[in-house]
Amino acid sequence: MNFAHSTSGTGDNAIAVTRVSEMQWHAVEDDRTVGRGDASYRPDGRLFISIDAWHGSTFDRIADAMLADLPTPLYTVVDEADPDSRSAWERAGFAAVRREWGYRVPTDPQVTGLGSVRPPSGVTIVPAGEAEEGPLRSLDHIIRDEVEAAVGWQSMPAEVLPRPAGTTLVDPSKYAVARHLDQYVGLVRVAPLTRQPRIGLIAVRADRHRRGIARALLAHALGSLHRSGTASAWAEVNEANAAATALFENIGARRAAGTLELVRR
Questions:
Q1: Pick the CATH number of 3-99 from 3.90.1640.30, 3.40.710.10, 3.40.630.30, 3.30.300.30
Q2: Where, residue-wise, is CATH 3.40.630.30 in the chain?
Q3: Packing angle between helix 56-69 and helix 83-91, nearest 10 degrees?
Q4: Which CATH homologous superfamily contains domain 101-258?
Q5: Where are the alpha helices (DSSP H) in 92-172?
Q6: Which of 45, 59, 124, 127 is deepest in the core (most CB within 10 A)?
């Protein structure tokens, strides 16, 4: 695919926006690439787009081409600290639908107060890398179905890891789980990123809520990081999720960033 979608005069030269593949667009001026647009499907099926351009006029031309080619709804994310980017997307007809807070989470139990936290009676924590893959995958599907039936998976922090079709759990070694008797009832996923590990998901089955399982999982995950010499981790929380916000803020996590998700319907 190599279709010249649109052109626009800017000064002495014209910008040509070309769809170079199914999910990529290039803006070219005087034989130089001056902007790019990309589209990708998230695991939940939503279509997200991004645009990288130096000038607002180039951004607008790429956006026009992508919006003409792609079905709606379309989604994008912007850093809340970047009002110019948000303004550019709003010119293209996008509006904010939710906000994620980024938290820097201490791992030291003397700071978090989690050093004395133990799992509730009958519950044990299976460390990362030791969970049985079959039961872990079953728990993952149960939790996702429960979230989808309640608030919808789109309300969860955006997950951008590529996954084979139908696969929601790529690397079981990143998960620690809570086990009650012979059942897995909760999980926490920690991605061991070089600069700062990321707590990608912490979730408990709906019938086991309000028993302290999530707090015990978090205590285990942060304690493991602390013992390995990691001072802090990163986590994203939907601002509408009051329980998750309280869980992190009550252990001394500090809000360090904000991300807006925008949609064009």
A1: 3.40.630.30
A2: 3-99, 101-258
A3: 50
A4: Gcn5-related N-acetyltransferase (GNAT) (3.40.630.30)
A5: 109-112, 133-150
A6: 59
Interaxial angle between packed helices 242-249 and 213-227, expressed in degrees from 0 to 180 and rounded to the nearest 10: 40
Phi (first) and psi of residue 9, to 5 degrees = -80, 130
Per-residue pLDDT of the chain (265 residues; tens, 9 = 90+): 445 555 555 444 688 999 999 999 999 998 899 999 999 998 778 999 999 998 999 999 999 999 999 999 999 999 999 999 999 999 999 999 999 999 999 999 999 999 999 999 999 999 999 999 999 999 988 988 888 776 565 555 544 444 555 556 668 889 999 999 889 999 999 988 778 899 988 999 999 999 999 999 999 999 999 999 999 999 999 888 888 899 999 999 999 999 999 999 9
DSSP 195-227: SS-EEEEEEE-GGGTTSSHHHHHHHHHHHHHHH
Exposed/middle/buried for 131, CB within 10 Å: 0-12, 13-18, 19+? buried
Question: Is the pTM value of this prediction over 0.70?
Answer: yes
* Helices marked H in the chain: 56-69, 83-91, 109-112, 133-150, 213-227, 242-249
